Amino acid sequence: MQRLRTWAQVAGVAALLAWAVGCEDGGGKLGEGHDFGPNNPNLHIAIGDSITAGGYPERLAALLGKPVINLGIPGSKSDSGASRIGSALSQYRPGYVLILYGANDVTSGRSFASIIENLRIMVQASKNNQSLPVLATLTPMFYEHALWAESVKLLNQEIRALASAEGVALADLESAFGDTPQYLQSDGLHPTAEGQQLIAQTFYDVLN
Questions:
Q1: CA 19 to chain CA mean position, Å
Q2: Residue 188, pLDDT score
Q3: Cα–Cα distances in angstroms (integers) from residue 104 to residues 67, 126, 202, in the given order
Q4: What pLDDT does 29 receive?
Q5: Buried-most residue among 12, 109, 119, 170 (CB within 10 A)?
């Protein structure tokens, strides 16, 4: 946890340095023509659980050449994101909000309706802030987490429908990973280094 706080602090400094050039860049193809208001179109925040905390934001920052603040908290569920999104938007004023939640909800037996509502809260808060949200489907589950594999697939259908209904971009991680555990650690849940890079690349492709 301390490491994540340290990263967020360092990334926050980088974000402030990037602010000076933010209005010149425009934030990439996804943001072309979008009015970011007082937000920095070159700043991204990534909110989520341990899959976010595990490192894809740093890899995405390297691909983009722009700051991506890692707000992932291991073990957190979508209601945590819904409760944190307002303060994160106020603190960082990001151009983009990358949202990856649901794995811990599924393994805890949370209803799809509650998960989707929490994701909707994050999406709408971002839109109301003039930030551009990017939703993500969940990565697949295998091995000791195979019990929830079908639930993940069903939830991902709901996440795709939410992205369509809200008119927001979607990083389809399920499609990127495919129906194989090759990008997952031995627990069948957390991505390997290659998996984290694939997540970063998938978000990058959506943003650009």
A1: 21
A2: 80
A3: 27, 22, 21
A4: 85
A5: 119
